[in-house]
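Regression report. Comparing outputs from two consecutive submissions.

Submission 1:
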Amino acid sequence: MSLFDHLEELRLRIFYALIAVVLGIIVCFVFVNPIVRLLEVPAQGAKFLQLAPGEYFFVSLKVAGYSGVGQGYRCISLIASEVEVVVVIVVPA
């Protein structure tokens, strides 16, 4: 393969990675309320405060963004057997 073929393949893989991350963010934004409740569990009853008029929306965007990036990374970088190992390690922690 020539250098340009490698660059074309890299461009294609980066494009697929961006698509996976954007789709992950969209899916996580749809389910942002359960994710926020899951994040509140370690605080044992404390609620997140809303000190400014749009703060909850922007926090929701941040939560969806960070979890969407994680989901996108998981989708594009791990194969099925690796996902099972990660789930077994992360869920009990």
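Submission 2:
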Amino acid sequence: MEWLQSLNRAIDYMEEHLTDNITCEDVAEHIYISSFHFQRTFNLLTGLTIGEYLRNRRLSLAGQELLKREDKVIDIALKLLIRINFIVISKSWIYNISKYFQ
């Protein structure tokens, strides 16, 4: 049960700092565990790496902001620390977002 509480605290911390440039070490330090064990446990319990989780959440937030605001894509990407390249932004994400702008 302690691992689940730690995981919830870690996710809460990551959600609060989505627009910051946080690392796995930052999150692990916040919940008082080694970075190595945190990465292994997080992946075991969620099926995602910390980087994948943060990237997916930032992309999701970017999609929501694109639908709500008139900001430029580059401004939202810079705000959310998203790397602008076609490796990070998958074809399926582009397809899902583009259907709202037709």
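Expected: both submissions complete independently.
Actual: both completed, but the second showed a warning that disappeared on reload.
Relevant detail on submission 2: The chain has one domain: 2-101.
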